[in-house]
Amino acid sequence: MAMVQTVTGHTVIGNGGAWTDPNGIPPARIATACHFATVFWLFWDEFHRPPNQAEVLKMGNAQLLVTSMIANGTRKDSPLIGSLNLTAGAVLIFVDQGRVARHSCVAIAAQQVGGYNQAGWWSAGGADHAYSTHTTNQLLWGHLGNRNKVHKFRDEQQWYQLYEVPEAYAKMIVRGAAQG
Fold it and tell me: Looking at the DSSP assignment, which residues form a beta bridge with residue 30?
């Protein structure tokens, strides 16, 4: 439950679509993309403080870090009835056919997620370089051969599998990257 409090208590990361550590020398501007936000919150919750620039740079590419979490996740399928249920604090990852993380966010309730750059991933809009929340009934599930996959709004050419990564595994990966 701590991860939920970290995410909902720190919805603003950076300014103008980028995060900068004021103590970084020289300060680097890092886009507050979805994966960066997910890793930022995981770090903050694991170490009880936000990361500094040196730690962010040491962890490396946030997309690669989130992609490495997929192996610890559980594939989620379209529910037969109702909305998809998640475990609060878990990381939800949208995975393409190449097994690369294309979007990530955090479950802040059983049927609600919070994250950055969520425009197009949900039927009810979203925001670019800003925080937004969505309910799992806003996922864009397919039908027939793609019934257990989702797509981005107005793009039924690319389909994504959903993986739910438990909070403990996601934090373990971030901890390893930060200390490695």
Answer: 19
Report the domain count for the chain.
1
Q: What is the pTM of this model?
A: 0.95
* CA dist., res. 21 & res. 54, Å (int): 9
How many CA atoms are closer than 13 Å to the CA of 75, on its beta-carbon side? Answer: 9
Which single residue is written with the structure tokens 């970084």? 24
Domain that holds residue 6: 2-179
154 phi-psi bin (left φ>0, alpha ψ -120 to 50, beta other): left
| CA 58/CA 174 separation, integer angstroms | 11
Residue with tokens 């900068």: 20
pLDDT in tens, 161-173: 999 999 999 999 9
